[in-house]
Design goal:
single chain, 163 residues, mainly beta, 6-stranded antiparallel β-barrel, 6-stranded mixed beta sheet, elongated
Length: 163
């Protein structure tokens, strides 16, 4: 199901005296956050005046956050992006949790978790049985965000309770 907001990172510290915050980015790469100019933090909308990469984090200057004290109040909060600002073809793990999964038009369960491994993600699908399905095109045949469904191809060994 498409979400209204996507969690993009956590504000872990302040930076300097002019109100910049340091964001531990949860996107695939911190460079991705540089593409956006607005965000939401604790239910409040902010314009991002500048975003730059510093090692594995981002330094973000938010409109209206002009002092170190202002920035300190945001520490520990989650920075969210507006889903409408992100390409529709990009699907986030959080949007897949709860999706109904079918194999040969037979309902096999619901995605309960997305495990992130170095090679690819793995979808944990639970129904009558539990399945571990690699998120690769050989097994994920289609994903329909509008209807909250996914069609997969199962092979031997994907069912976790098989011997």
């Amino acid at each position: 199901m498409k979400l209204d907001y996507i969690e993009a990172g956590e504000i872990v510290n302040t930076h300097g005296v002019r109100g910049e915050v340091k964001v531990l980015c949860w996107l695939d790469a911190p460079e991705m956050l540089c593409e956006f100019d607005r965000c939401r933090i604790a239910g409040k909308d902010y314009k991002m005046e500048s975003v730059r990469v510093q090692k594995t984090c981002n330094l973000v200057k938010l409109n209206g956050v002009d002092t170190m004290e202002d920035a300190q109040k945001l520490r520990g909060k989650v920075l969210e992006l507006y889903r409408e600002d992100i390409d529709d073809e990009v699907i986030f793990a959080a949007e897949l949790v709860g999706m109904e999964v079918y194999s040969d038009d037979i309902h096999i369960g619901t995605i309960r978790e997305v495990l992130d491994y170095p090679g690819n993600a793995v979808y944990v699908v639970r129904g009558e049985h539990e399945y571990m399905i690699p998120a690769v095109k050989q097994f994920i045949l289609s994903t329909d965000m509008e209807n909250n469904t996914m069609q997969v191809r199962l092979i031997e060994g994907m069912r976790s309770d098989e011997n």
